[in-house]
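Thread: quick sanity check before group meeting

JM: Hey all, I'm pulling together slides for Thursday and realized we never actually wrote out the predicted structure for the chain we discussed last week. Dropping the sequence here so it's in one place. If anyone has concerns about the input, flag it before I start.
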Amino acid sequence: MDSTDVAACWEANAETWTRHARAGYDLYRDALNTPVFLANLPDIAGMNGLDIGCGEGSNTRKLAEAGGRVTAVDIAPTFIRHAREAEAAKPLGIDYRFGDGTALPFPDASFDFATAFMSLMDMPSQDKALAEAARVLKPGGFLQFSILHPCFAPPNRKVLRDAEGSVTGLLISEYFNNTNGEIETWRFGAAPAEVRASVEPFRVPRFHRTMSEWVAMIVAAGLTIEHMAEPRVDAQTAQVEPYLADTHVAPLFLHIRARKGAVA
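JM (edit): ok, ran it. Output follows.
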């Protein structure tokens, strides 16, 4: 599967995805993943940044609200349309462009920082995406990204629950099975049952790589890892919001910040 095929999948997902995410059904994102990502983000006020795989722009707007001067790209035109409409309704100075993360349409050393919220894992050539992110960063700039955790969200992952529905563990297998565009179908689990039943499931291509492969690709891109995080909920939150309780047992997401070496 190449970038054209991936783009077709995400363009087909984009309309429903935007509507459901903005309705609050992407609970993993809103209640856990994005807050932790932003809490660990360095101060970006006044810096020029690039958001790679911006989707409908929810997280991009948070970067702008934190003071960044942000350009954002996505491979699905419908996502870009929705993001631009949100920018027109509440201008934050964001420049949304159609673009492929594995072939970014920007000159070398264009940005002080780059982000990628849950997008690099969905690209068919993560090595190219990381190399492109490094290329457009200025010396000393950083890339911070989030992905499904390679160790705890491989191709086969099942949440185990007891008779009362409480999470007791995870069944993990196929960690070493690299996938190259195998399609997963799913809906936002936090959406009401009648809402889920009313739409076609998302078709998401998976490109699973092991932890060591991710580290090797980051190193090959000329980046140095300086921070990692594995977002989780605490025991109290797991009880109040059982939908997220699996992340109290093991992480679903991995965050990495890597920096481009400064010129001596």
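AS: nice. The chain has a mean pLDDT of 95. The first helix runs from residue 3 to 22.
JM: adding both to the slides.
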